Amino acid sequence: MKTLIEPFKIKMVEPISQTTEKQREKFLKEADYNPFLIRAENILLDFLTDSGTGAMSDRQWAAMITGDEAYAGSKSFYNFESVVKKITGFKHIIPTHQGRAAEKILFANTVKKGDMVPNNTHFDTTRANVEYNDAEAVDLVIAEGKQPALVHPFKGNIDLEKLEAFLKKNHKKSPVGMMTVTNNSGGGQPVSMENLRKASAIYRKYKVPFFIDACRFAENAYFIKIREKGYEKKSVLEIAQEMFSYADGCTMSAKKDGMVNIGGFLAMNDDSLAANCRNLLILTEGFPSYGGLAGRDLDALAVGLMEALDEEYLRYRIRTAEYMGEQLLAAGIGIIRPTGGHAVYIDAKSVYPHIPPHQYPGQVLVCELYKKGGIRGVEIGSVMFGKKDKKTGKEIPAAMELVRLAFPRRVYTQSHFDYAVEAIIETFECRKKAKGLKIVWEPPFLRHFTAKFAPVG
Ligand code: F0G
Fold this sequence. Notes:
Elements: H1 21-30, E1 45-46, H2 58-65, H3 75-88, E2 92-96, H4 99-108, E3 116-119, H5 124-132, E4 136-139, H6 160-170, E5 177-180, H7 193-205, E6 210-213, H8 217-227, H9 236-245, E7 249-253, E8 264-268, H10 271-284, H11 295-307, H12 311-330, E9 343-347, H13 348-351, H14 361-373, E10 375-376, E11 378-380, H15 382-385, E12 387-388, E13 395-396, E14 402-406, H16 414-429, E15 437-441, E16 452-455
Ligand F0G binds near residues 49, 100, 123, 125 and 213.
């Protein structure tokens, strides 16, 4: 059959509130043109993030009912631990309430002032947690990974020559090295097994412990299966196991490929590092057998991790982004190619060539998409990454002006995506009328969450 269907049926439904374009104009104005500040009940299709927004399965809900809420040593913890061990093979499994908590605990116990952490591309919270310890987060993704329109099967790969040169010079200052799978900040692009294996050999040569940021490990493993020679016949679980076998540990936001609304973990082989991490965990998250989660959350996660490795599910998941991407490209809309695992990234510079970076074309597109179709995406451009020149105070724009439409797992159907495509194309057709935005208020850090905007002139 040519038609690929959602590999699930719906047992519980949540209404979507319908709003008119006129109402949405009012909501947008009230939110100072920052869709983070719009009430979710006024959003039709919410593509703000794929993090913690997925739908749990009947088996996950059933597992929650049998959750064991013992403070220490609960059955739920052992269910969770055995599944994570089966997939990752790591010796110590430490639950946390989400990904950034695992990062905080790892970096607080490894990096110090003046250190450097290499990665393909650090996600914002990873970078912030490295910098919080006065260390530097260094991105070494391959050059192809920075060119939106260029098609390459593994745009998340790290530049192995750069990594070798970097560690030759800095290995004494690098207490940990990382690789983010898939590379979210670069467009949800996968890392090949060959690249993981070779990066691991370089990290080992310089005795730098290697940690995987594993948020979207299952999507990455599926890309390896369909794109890398020699992996066609392996199961996605076997591929994931091999990926983790090259590392010494991982951080995980289970809000992505853990298929849960909250949860995460830190895993590693090193006994003394694990003991230090557990000590800090007790201070900040909770006892090592629950780490800030309820027993029932750990049970839902144990089931969710295995469901994320289901190949029928992954086929539908990856195809969804591809399906949307193909239609946008056919309409002449610039996107990051190929489409990644969890999102489609629109190149707002190509949509609004008449809007300069300091009038935030990505933010304009986010607002126009909401107005036209009630769709919420997120700007990944000069609002999020623009920096102020320390001398002149002038803003240095980001390298790319992107809008990310990230897809919650198992939430929307094909007709939702058809509707989204129609709304994006209609917005594109009105592109010449769009006007820039200016910032009228901003906080000192992470301004994209709360900044206030107004239309220019
Ligand atoms: N690493 C990556 C690659 C991520 O994408 C995220 C979260 C984190 C770490 C942190 O995990 O949110 O559980 O603390 N990404 C979300 C997003 C927020 O929208 O891309 P967390």
